[in-house]
């Protein structure tokens, strides 16, 4: 079946079987590899993208369910909140292995879009669905707080 998919502001016509995860269309059909496969069951957050502005797990989102939606991947982040998060991540040298970081950044942008200055508890709660095997969670929390400061400046 052919699906019209708007990804990072560009509309694409993609051929995919019903039930195909959005993740595989993004990576295999559209060749955007910033969105990672982690667990395949929406538990780790590595595959996080924004669907109509909200973080969602692309490994468990079927392509037919997002026709007509606006999808943003890590490659398409380009607003003030995203710039603040990316700056804070670089400033604080958050990344270790980096595998989970695109999902972490997508979730952090979602949080700071919803909540201008989240508390540490709100950060922990919102980011709980993103797993970092390198244990950078304290740096991620610090970077989110820093990004909140940067975007308000």
Written account of the structure:
With 153 residues, the chain is of the alpha+beta class. Helix content is 38%, strand content 15%. The chain has a five-stranded mixed sheet, with helices on both faces. The radius of gyration is 15 Å and the shape is globular. The mean pLDDT is 96.
SSE blueprint:
Layout: E1 2-7, E2 10-15, H1 22-29, E3 48-51, E4 54-57, E5 70-72, H2 80-91, H3 101-114, H4 120-127, H5 137-152
Parallel strand pairs: 1-5
Antiparallel strand pairs: 1-2, 3-4, 3-5
Helix pairs in contact: 2-3, 2-5
Per DSSP E runs of 2 or more residues, the count of β-strands stands at 5
Order of strands across the main sheet: 2-1-5-3-4
Question: Segments where pLDDT lies below 50 for 5+ residues?
Answer: none
Summarize the main sheet. Answer: 5 strands, mixed
Going by helix content, strand content and strand pairing, the class is alpha+beta
Percent helix, as a range, is 25-40%
Beta-strand proportion:
15-25%
Q: SSE order, as H and E?
A: EEHEEEHHHH
Number of helices: 5
